[in-house]
């Protein structure tokens, strides 16, 4: 039953899974003559449990502001829960918005060097509403990179994967080159036949973009302030080049939940 308290509508919940954890604090004696933080914070296990507790009910907080503001009075909290069975001629399953990707070879430096990022992170960086307001900067030192390598992160893949990742790599390169003057980008990846046929003629005309048909082998830095060293194979030869920022083209991965739903419905994920 909804009731009003202090000019707010309250919905009492009787299914809260656990009580709120109490924040640990130092004793009163320890606070005297000290500038130490009073609240010490949750241990990791308690913080994880508290986060799960807060997200577990998946219900509103009961403020009922939506109810108060809804002029057509379309919101009715008294409607009981019910399960509906709906018939459809076809079900389309998509990958969702988790943006998860298959593991990247550790030799490529992702997770080791701050200036080795994924295509998803680069896309956010290039966005005018992103963390850098669209400015291309190296997470390593905050400097504007002058040489960027866009490399394939998964050597194994089908034609569709290579085509989509190469198109993304070219598009992101164009945006980066448009943002920064006197910058050069090298795209290093196996080149699939569909890309060669449909896009290579136009992509090869883009100024300051060098498309290299090769396989990235490793990324390393010999000294702290030195550029990244990309090692790749091309035409059976091993080559090394220095770059200020390396962007890895990822291969999307379907979540376990979506995969299970796909098997249950016997429907391919688009």
Summarize the structure.
It contains eight helices and ten strands.
Please outline the helices and strands.
Elements lengths: L2 E3 L2 E3 L17 H4 L12 H13 L8 H5 L46 E3 H8 L20 E6 L6 H21 L4 E6 L3 H6 L1 H4 L5 E5 L1 E6 L7 E7 L2 E7 L1 E5 L6 H10 L5
Parallel strand pairs: 3-10, 4-5, 4-10, 5-6
Antiparallel strand pairs: 1-2, 7-8, 8-9
Helix pairs in contact: 4-5
Could you characterize the architecture of this molecule?
The model has no long low-confidence stretch (mean pLDDT 83). This protein folds into 2 domains: 3-69, no CATH class; 106-249, 3-Layer(bba) Sandwich (FAD/NAD(P)-binding domain), CATH 3.50.50. The protein has helices at residues 28-31, 44-56, 65-69, 119-126, 159-179, 193-198, 200-203, 256-265; strands spanning 3-5, 8-10, 116-118, 147-152, 184-189, 209-213, 215-220, 228-234, 237-243, 245-249. 26% of the residues lie in helices and 19% in strands. The two termini are 44 Å apart. It is α/β, with parallel strands linked by helices. Helix 4 packs parallel to helix 5. The chain has a 5-stranded parallel beta sheet with strand order 3-10-4-5-6. A hairpin with a 2-residue loop joins strand 1 (3-5) and strand 2 (8-10).
> What is the N-to-C order of secondary-structure elements (H for helix, E for strand)?
EEHHHEHEHEHHEEEEEH
CATH superfamily of the largest domain: FAD/NAD(P)-binding domain
Give the mean pLDDT: 83
Low-confidence stretches: none
Key structural traits:
extended; 270 residues; 5-stranded parallel β-sheet; FAD/NAD(P)-binding domain; alpha/beta; 8 helices
């Amino acid at each position: 039953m909804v009731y009003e308290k202090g000019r707010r509508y309250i919905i009492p919940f009787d299914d809260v899974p656990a009580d709120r954890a109490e924040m640990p604090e130092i004793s009163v004696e320890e606070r005297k003559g000290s500038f130490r933080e009073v609240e010490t914070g949750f241990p990791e296990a308690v913080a994880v449990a508290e986060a799960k507790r807060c997200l577990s009910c998946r219900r509103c907080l009961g403020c009922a502001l939506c109810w108060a503001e809804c002029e057509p009075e379309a919101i009715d909290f008294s409607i009981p829960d019910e399960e509906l069975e709906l018939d459809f001629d076809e079900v389309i399953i998509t990958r969702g918005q988790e943006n998860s990707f298959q593991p990247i070879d550790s030799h490529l430096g992702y997770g080791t060097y701050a200036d080795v990022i994924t295509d998803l992170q680069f896309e956010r960086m290039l966005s005018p509403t992103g963390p850098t307001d669209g400015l291309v900067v190296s997470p390593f030192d905050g400097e504007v990179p002058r040489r960027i390598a866009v490399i394939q992160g998964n050597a194994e893949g089908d034609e569709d994967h290579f085509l989509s990742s190469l198109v993304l790599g070219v598009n992101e390169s164009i945006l980066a080159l448009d943002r920064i003057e006197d910058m050069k980008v090298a795209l290093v990846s196996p080149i699939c036949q569909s890309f060669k046929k449909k896009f290579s003629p136009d992509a090869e005309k883009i100024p300051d973009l060098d498309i290299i048909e090769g396989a990235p082998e490793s990324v390393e830095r010999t000294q702290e302030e030195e550029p990244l060293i990309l090692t790749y194979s091309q035409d059976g030869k091993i080559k090394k080049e220095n770059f200020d920022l390396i962007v890895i083209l990822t291969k999307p991965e379907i979540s376990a939940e979506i995969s299970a739903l796909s098997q249950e419905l016997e429907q391919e994920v688009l």
